[in-house]
Design brief:
The protein has 494 residues and is α+β, with helices and mostly antiparallel strands. Helix content is 28%, strand content 24%.
């Protein structure tokens, strides 16, 4: 992901170049399935509403499935807790004997919400895979204008559940994303210009602490943990539910319009002009420069938070010759689902992030990597107002500073064969560095803009994401988890 302070037309033209193990003792059951003794202990101790699954069952397969093939593991078993108390029984290191299983045995585990993490081991494991599917409630409170939602849900589910109340929340802007990764990691949305990041709108977390205690974390009950959870992911325990602000939601105007390679110049001009002139926080665009199966295209989502958009706002996009258009007045969830990103599931993948950028090698990266089993090379231009970070009442772990907001480029490479993993990781890193250098050479002071953790490749340093917040986060982690139980999970570790 590449942040940018200024979006030039020449820079957007450049994007056309960018796209063209755990061991444990166990035993065999009657079906010759290896049943880990740790998994059996969990199954014995938790309530009857929580279930442990083993290899060979369809639910085990579902629990271990990830959108990215390279981030999936075959776990010893999967565990679907149905209560926060059962999460504590399985995970934590102290209290009664029944609450010691994973912590006491030092067994690796992972927590999966939606399963959209691309980095291997961040929400998957060869140990015990905890899948949060049973936490699937959506409870709307009209008095407080909040909704409490389970971390086993996709944001699509949340949007649909809240439609009958004519409200929505700030969550994912594309389909198939779990509640957990946004509520703990950030969340750039079509509503961000109006209401901030996804976790800027969280008012409470239901958290299972590493010692097994189930507690509600708010800015008033525990300001340190409330700060740390907003960007700190799974370092401090397991979040089972989040309470978030809701906002009135009518139908919206917008959808997807796509352009072929010979139409990119006009489309890129429209994107640059929108960035330079847009001031209406209800308006947003999301642009993907793609090289898919040796075909180059731009797909742009146009969004306005009302049934109709102001006259002339998107005329330039609509007047450029295009190959496809799906623009209408529609529900908010229909617009979110108008970009079919789930078609990329099953590929190996890596993301990167830069504060706006591009060189003229998008198509060249796509063409050059086709022989390395590349199926999609995508540079996604996310355009925001510089005030996007102004909608929060207290500090958050990410970003480390909110002095100004940046638009950015999210880089995504998807490929088929594991033998090319190193090639693809090296290529996405080289591309991001090239964009950052090009923007720096152009006079933009973006080289040290904090990297968005949800789009950071696995070799990103904590300092690049959390900056001066890192010492405070490490101190909170040590205080909350002195036995480092959450160190048995993957992800960014403090």
């Amino acid at each position: 992901m590449v942040a940018f302070a200024d979006l030039s037309l020449s820079f957007l033209f450049g994007l056309s170049g960018l796209t063209v193990p755990v061991t444990s003792s166990g035993f065999l059951d009657a079906g010759n399935v290896l049943r880990s003794t740790v998994c059996e202990q969990i199954a014995t101790k938790v309530s009857s509403s929580s279930i442990v699954y083993y290899p060979g069952s369809s639910q085990y397969t579902k629990d271990n499935y990830h959108w990215s093939a390279s981030s999936s593991h075959a776990s010893e078993c999967s565990f679907e807790p149905a209560t926060a108390e059962d999460v504590g029984i399985a995970v934590c290191a102290r209290r009664t004997i029944s609450l010691q299983i994973l912590g006491r045995t030092q067994t690796q585990f992972a927590i999966k919400s939606g399963g959209h993490a691309a980095n291997a081991g961040f929400s998957s494991t060869p140990g015990v895979q905890i899948a949060m599917y049973s936490f699937s409630d959506v409870v709307y409170d009209s008095a407080t204008q909040t909704a409490t939602v389970g971390t086993g849900l996709l944001w699509d589910d949340v949007y649909v559940a809240l439609e009958k109340y004519s409200v929505t929340v700030v969550g994912a802007k594309v389909t198939g994303i779990g509640v957990g990764g946004i509520a703990l990691g950030g969340g750039y949305s079509y509503l961000t210009n109006q209401h901030g990041l996804g976790f800027d709108n969280v008012v409470a977390y239901e958290l299972v602490l590493p010692n097994g205690t189930v507690t509600d974390i708010t800015d008033s009950t525990n300001p340190d943990l409330f700060f740390a959870l907003r960007g700190g992911f799974n370092n401090f325990g397991i979040v089972t539910r989040v309470t978030v602000k809701t906002y009135p939601q009518s139908q919206v105007w917008g959808g997807r319009i796509s352009y072929a390679l010979d139409q990119w110049e006009g489309a890129s001009s429209a994107i640059a002009n929108f960035w330079a002139n847009a001031t209406d926080p209800k308006a947003a665009i999301y642009n993907t420069y793609n090289y898919i199966s040796e075909v180059a295209e731009i797909s742009t989502i146009l969004f306005y938070d009302a049934p109709t958009c102001p006259e002339g706002m998107f005329d330039e996009f609509l007047s450029v010759p295009h190959i496809e258009k799906d623009i209408s007045t529609r529900s908010y969830v229909s617009l979110v689902q108008s970009l079919p990103l789930n078609v990329t599931s099953g590929l190996r993948s890596v993301f990167h992030w830069a504060s706006d950028g591009g060189d003229h090698s998008a198509c060249s990266w796509g063409a050059n990597l086709t022989g390395s089993s590349a199926r999609i090379i995508s540079y996604d231009v996310d355009v925001y107002l510089s005030t996007l970070y102004d909608h929060v009442d207290s500090p958050t772990a990410y970003p480390p500073t909110r002095d100004r907001g940046y638009s950015f480029i999210e880089v995504y490479y998807g490929w088929a064969d594991s033998e090319y993993d190193d090639t693809m990781f090296d290529a996405v890193d080289a591309s991001a560095k090239h964009m950052i250098q090009a923007l720096t050479d152009d006079g933009q002071d973006i080289a040290n803009v904090a990297v968005y953790p949800n789009n950071a490749p696995p070799d990103t340093t904590l300092e690049r994401m959390y900056g001066d917040n890192l010492p405070r986060l490490r101190a909170i982690k040590k205080a909350v988890d002195p036995d480092n139980v959450m160190g048995l999970t993957g992800g960014w570790k403090f």
